[in-house]
Amino acid sequence: MAKLVDALALGASGETHEGSSPFSGTMKPDIIYEDENILVINKPSGMVVHPFDYSTEYTLVDFLLEKYPKIFDIDNKVTLQDGRMIALGGIVHKLDRDTSGVVVIAKNQKTFDDLKTQFKNHTTKKKYVAKVEGLIEKDNFTINAPLGRGKKDYKQSTNPINPRGELRNAITKVKVVERKNNTTLVELSPITGRTHQLRAHMSSISHPIVGDKAYGSKIESPRIMLHAKSISFLLNGEEKTFETEVPESFK
Questions:
Q1: Which residues are catalytic?
Q2: What is the third-level CATH fold of 1-121?
Q3: CATH code for the part of the protein at 124-246
Q4: Does this chain's domain 1-121 share its CATH topology with 124-246?
Q5: How far is 45 from 38, CA to CA, in rounded Å?
Q6: Which residues pair with 131 in a beta bridge?
Q7: pLDDT tens digits, residue range 26-79?
Q8: Left, alpha or beta for 125 (phi > 0: left; psi -120 to 50: alpha)?
Q9: Alpha carbon distance, N-terminus to C-terminus of the chain
Q10: Rounded distance between C-alpha atoms, residue 18 and residue 8, angstroms
């Protein structure tokens, strides 16, 4: 418990932050919507949602600790490999560091539990926009390819070498938005929510996301060209949908 108290007192990174916040300029998360139950933000590319093993950088968790400390009354903790216990507060889901876009955060335990159940049951609806390498021929199709990791690999794959256990079901709907300069802008709708699902699925069909070197991209880019455009879920029995603008660099 002491480690959890330290994380709450000093920030999730374990460091004090005096003066101006590191979240300034382009690194400041935009607040899309807020009420007594939820906070919805637009996470910029480059921002880490929460600390990972042996990391010390400032994260979205630190931002929330500063601005919304009461959400850390929510019972939601993880223990990292380095032994630190981190309180995640109302964080229900996350995006990769380079992925920008919409993130919903619960502000009380009831809403957190409800949203967590929806994510677990895959009843939330999410849409992403990605720029991928090559020209995709079909306008609409579905990738139904189970994913898993090899014993010596952190990446997800549809055909991992020496997989860790059984592969997990993974389904992604793909819709072509625009074909341009040997790249294709696509809308991706994950039916399941596996780690790196969109990145692994697009790589598996030889159209990796631009800038995603880990999954085979050969095109130089300052970021992975993946953006969480919208999310829909039920809140007190009413469907809520929140959208973000697609960054200009995708167009």
A1: 96
A2: Pseudouridine synthase (3.30.2350)
A3: 3.30.2350.10
A4: yes
A5: 22
A6: 185
A7: 477 999 999 999 999 999 999 999 888 777 788 999 999 999 999 999 999 988
A8: beta
A9: 48
A10: 15
